[in-house]
Design brief:
CATH topology of the largest domain: Rossmann fold
Strand order of the largest sheet: 1-2-3-8-7-6-5-4
Number of strands: 19
Number of helices: 12
Number of domains: 2
Structural class: alpha+beta
CATH class of the largest domain: Alpha Beta
Strand content: 25-35%
Distance between the termini: 69 Å
Radius of gyration: 21 Å
C-alpha cells in the first residue's frame, strides 16, 4: 500500500464534514473534532432562497495533522523533476510527482501554515498540516480554491464584490473598493431578514436566461467600526472567534465564520442567488447617502474597475492539471452583457454612518438623482 493510500485509510470513515457550496460537493474526512467544527462553521449555510443548480457528485478530501508525515513528504524523490505553483501573491508551493502518480504540493515561501496537498486526479485530495490547530484553516483554504476552480471552469467572472439577497428575494451584487462598505452592507441585509451570498469575492455566472451571484466561501472580515456597530464585542462575550485558531488574521479587522455571523448577527449565508441588481458602492464623507441609476455604458465601465480577471492577488487554476490562468479576453464583454440585462445603481455613502436600518431601502434603489443618458 502506497503512502497516499495509507493516508487515505487513516482518515477515511472518521468525522465527515459534508460541504455543499453551489455546484461543489465535498466529503471532508478528518480525525480531529476541532477541524470538523472549523470546516462546518466556515461553510454553514441557510436554506437557499431560490433553486440552485445541482451539486456535482461528491469528491473526497482527507485531512490529517502530522508533522512527521509532512517531513516524509518533503524527503520523497520526484519522478519528474520539481516545479512551482503560486496560489496567492508571494505564496508558493513546491510541486513534484512521485513514482506512484501522486502529485504533491508542499507549502513553501510565504505560507503561514505548514502543510501539503496531495492528489492523483485533481478531484480527490489529501491535506496534511504540521499542527492540529492549523488543520481547519488549511482545509477551508483548500475548499475555497476548489470552489474557485469549479466556478472558473464554468466561465464565471470574479469581482471584488460582496452579494446579498434582500428580504424581498432580490439578489444584489455589491462592488466597490476596499472600505466601501461591501461586507457591512451584505451582513446588514442578512440581519434584516435577507441572506449573505459573499463578502469579498463574488462571481457572476450566466445561468440560462439570468445571472447568478455566487459567493466564494471566505471568513467575513469587519473593520472595528462595523464590528462595533453590530455589537459584536458584546455578543462574543469575551470568547475568541473560531478564526483565532492558528495564525492570526489582521488585527485591524474581526474575522468571523459563516456560523458565527449567523449566531452573532442573526443573518445566514446562501452560496448563490439570482442577481437582479448590480450596485457600485463608494465611500464618501456626506450627510446623506446618494443613489444614482447608471446607464449601461457607464455601469460597465465602473464595474470593470472591480473585475478580477485575472485576480491581482489570488492566482487562478493553480489546483488544476494545467495551472495556466483563465483567459480574460471575453470578460469585459460578458460584464457589459450583465450590465445591459440588469439595472445598475451607484451608491455614494459613509458606510460607518449610513449602513444601518436604511441599508435595505438604499439597496432596493429608488434613485435620488437622475441618470445622465
Amino acid at each position: 500500500m502506497s503512502l497516499y493510500e495509507r493516508t487515505v485509510e487513516r482518515a477515511r470513515g472518521h468525522s465527515i464534514a459534508h460541504v455543499e457550496w453551489f455546484t461543489t460537493s465535498l466529503r471532508v474526512h478528518t480525525l480531529l473534532p476541532a477541524a470538523h467544527t472549523y470546516v462546518m462553521g466556515q461553510h454553514h449555510i441557510a436554506t437557499p432562497p431560490s433553486p440552485l443548480p445541482p451539486s456535482r457528485e461528491p469528491a473526497d478530501l482527507y485531512a490529517v495533522a502530522d508533522s512527521g508525515l509532512l517531513s516524509t513528504l518533503r524527503s520523497l524523490p520526484s519522478a519528474r523533476g520539481v516545479g512551482h505553483r503560486e496560489s496567492f501573491r508571494g505564496w508558493w508551493y513546491e510541486c513534484h510527482e512521485t513514482s506512484d502518480g501522486t502529485m504533491t504540493l508542499l507549502a513553501g515561501e510565504g505560507h503561514e501554515v505548514d502543510h501539503a496537498l496531495l492528489t492523483r486526479d485533481f478531484r480527490e485530495w489529501i491535506v496534511v498540516a504540521a499542527r492540529p490547530e492549523q488543520l481547519g484553516l488549511a482545509v477551508t483554504r483548500t475548499v475555497r480554491e476548489l470552489v474557485r476552480e469549479d466556478l472558473l471552469r464554468q466561465g464565471a467572472l470574479m469581482l471584488h464584490a460582496a452579494a446579498a439577497v434582500l428580504p424581498d428575494g432580490t439578489g444584489v451584487l455589491l462592488a466597490g473598493a476596499s472600505g466601501a462598505g461591501k461586507t457591512s452592507a451584505a451582513v446588514r441585509v442578512a440581519q434584516a431578514g435577507g441572506r449573505c451570498v459573499g463578502t469579498d469575492r463574488t462571481f457572476l455566472l450566466r445561468h440560462h436566461d439570468s445571472w447568478l451571484a455566487v459567493g466564494l466561501p471566505m471568513s467575513t472580515r469587519l473593520a472595528s467600526g462595523s464590528a462595533n456597530a453590530f455589537g459584536l464585542a458584546e455578543a462574543l462575550g469575551g470568547r475568541s472567534p473560531i478564526r483565532a485558531q492558528g495564525p492570526q488574521p489582521s488585527r485591524a479587522k474581526l474575522s468571523l465564520s459563516n456560523a458565527e455571523v449567523h449566531e452573532l448577527v442573526g443573518g445566514g449565508f446562501t452560496p448563490a442567488a439570482t442577481a437582479g441588481r448590480l450596485i457600485v458602492l463608494e465611500a464618501v464623507r456626506s450627510e446623506k447617502p446618494r443613489v444614482t441609476a447608471l446607464p449601461v455604458s457607464e455601469a460597465a465601465k465602473v464595474l470593470t474597475e472591480h473585475l478580477l480577471v485575472p485576480d491581482p492577488a489570488y492566482r487562478s487554476r493553480w489546483l488544476a492539471p494545467d495551472p495556466a490562468p483563465e483567459p480574460s479576453l471575453d470578460a469585459e464583454d460578458e460584464l457589459f452583457a450583465a450590465a445591459a440585462e440588469m439595472p445598475t445603481l451607484s451608491i455614494s455613502w459613509d458606510p460607518v454612518r449610513h449602513c444601518d436600518e436604511r441599508t435595505v431601502r438604499l439597496l432596493s434603489g429608488v434613485p435620488t438623482a437622475p441618470a445622465v443618458m
